[in-house]
């Protein structure tokens, strides 16, 4: 007998195959809650709670079709609550949705959707066996793909010591100065990332006339200005990753792996940036700016002596991609992790940021005006990493995590205006030092 589904939410739920967030179970587990069925329910409760949480849908067969069996909501919830408290330690938290023919959700029978919550700030959930009220056996499970399996030794250590970070996110603010002709601006001090950005804007200055024409367009000019900044920052980051010492990264990862007494999940290799194919049709057509040519010219200027140690340091079999709109860098290894470095545009302003000691903003002198020949661009780099744990093994997860931290150290920590701002000298002291330098110059000039 086919059961018709009238409820849209239930219909949507049943369109998905079983995965790490959804599991389908027969109504028999609730209508006949013997010892074996209670154990089955308990292991799925624990498995989902030890992962990211998920849904157990009762009253559905293996083909995702409702069985048409009537369930009594209160009795089902009483059984599940008893199992969550008696067969799981610590207990598992959940909520539920109940769909029935009486509510016109289905043409026959009932479906119970159990929403299992991920454990929060608690030890991992164990499936337990008790004797005389005392726990005599604990079994730890985790949801992985479409099954709920026993955890490995490494996973158990991880579950007890920390909640695995399945996603890592960090961001940093970036500011850059240039002239109205898109040439690098000679000011001091500046963050270290200005070195490469200056090279890029020096390259862009070759197209100053073409750029000016494009940016003067009232409809698309502002958008193109954003695009130039994003591309410059993307190229700068790629180049920075390309010249990072492989030995230093490998040593750092090896030390972290050794500290927790595991083996590396995979080996690493060098990725040749010349194989990165990016056709930037927008700027190539508008101003003649060729992304690949610019990147190639910068890489010819590598100041690393050991050429075998350059190139992007990535896992063997990994890939590097740049999005079509040249706003994201993706570094990933299938079934292990994906790192996304996204460039966001924030604003632009005339003059230098007021916190910079050479800025003429807020100096208290009404006769000093902001220098209109100087411009400041502000954006941000957002880095996010998603791991495939627990589908990947624990060694792979920890290796991926350590690798992601290395990328964050290279990129986000280096391109950090706020960190640089904290190191800026006091404006008054800076002005005094400049005056002293001028006096020294005059004295030296007279002595000569």
UniProtKB/TrEMBL annotation:
UniProt superkingdom: Archaea
Domain Schlafen AlbA-2 residue range list: 18-150
Region (Disordered): 350-376
Gene3D superfamilies in UniProt: Schlafen, AAA domain
InterPro entries reported in the protein's UniProt record: Schlafen_AlbA_2_dom, Schlafen_AlbA_2_dom_sf
PANTHER family on file: GLPR-RELATED TRANSCRIPTIONAL REPRESSOR, SCHLAFEN ALBA-2 DOMAIN-CONTAINING PROTEIN
Name of the molecule in the record: Schlafen AlbA-2 domain-containing protein
């Amino acid at each position: 007998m086919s059961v018709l589904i009238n409820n849209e939410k239930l219909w949507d739920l049943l369109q998905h195959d079983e995965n790490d967030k959804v599991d389908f179970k027969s109504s028999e587990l609730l209508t006949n809650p013997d010892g074996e069925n209670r154990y089955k329910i308990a292991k799925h409760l624990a498995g989902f709670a030890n992962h990211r949480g998920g849904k157990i849908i009762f009253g559905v067969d293996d083909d995702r079709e409702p069985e048409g069996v009537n369930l009594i909501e209160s009795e089902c919830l009483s059984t599940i609550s008893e199992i969550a408290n008696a067969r799981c330690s610590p207990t598992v938290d959940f909520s539920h949705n109940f769909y029935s023919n009486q509510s016109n959700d289905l043409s026959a029978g009932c479906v119970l959707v159990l929403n299992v919550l991920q454990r929060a700030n608690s030890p991992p959930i164990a499936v337990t066996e008790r004797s005389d009220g005392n726990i005599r056996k604990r079994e730890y499970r985790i949801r992985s793909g479409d099954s709920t399996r026993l955890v490995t030794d490494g996973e158990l250590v991880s579950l007890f010591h920390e909640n695995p970070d399945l996603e890592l996110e960090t961001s940093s603010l970036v500011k850059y100065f240039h002239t109205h002709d898109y040439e690098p601006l000679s000011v001091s001090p500046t963050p270290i990332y200005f070195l490469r950005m200056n090279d890029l804007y020096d390259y862009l200055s070759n197209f100053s006339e073409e750029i000016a024409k494009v940016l003067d367009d009232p409809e698309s000019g502002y958008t193109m200005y954003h695009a130039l900044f994003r591309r410059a920052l993307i190229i700068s980051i790629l180049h920075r990753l390309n010249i990072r010492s492989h030995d230093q990264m490998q040593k750092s990862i090896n030390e972290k792996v050794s500290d927790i007494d595991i083996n590396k999940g995979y080996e690493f290799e060098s990725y040749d940036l010349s194989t990165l194919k990016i056709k930037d049709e927008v700027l190539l057509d508008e101003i003649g700016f060729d992304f690949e040519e610019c990147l190639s010219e910068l890489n010819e200027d590598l100041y690393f002596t050991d050429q075998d140690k350059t190139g992007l340091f990535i896992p063997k079999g990994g890939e590097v991609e740049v999005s079509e709109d040249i706003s994201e860098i993706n570094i990933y290894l299938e079934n292990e992790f994906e790192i996304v470095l996204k460039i966001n545009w924030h604003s632009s302003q005339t003059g230098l940021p007021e916190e910079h000691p050479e800025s003429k903003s807020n100096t208290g002198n009404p006769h000093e005006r902001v220098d209109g020949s100087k411009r400041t661009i502000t954006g941000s780099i957002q880095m996010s990493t998603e791991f495939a744990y627990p589908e990947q093994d624990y060694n792979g997860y920890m290796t991926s995590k350590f690798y992601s931290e290395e990328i964050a150290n290279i990129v986000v920590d280096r391109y950090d205006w706020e960190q640089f701002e904290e190191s800026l000298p006091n404006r008054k002291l800076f002005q005094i030092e400049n005056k002293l330098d001028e006096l020294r110059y005059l004295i030296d000039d007279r002595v000569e």
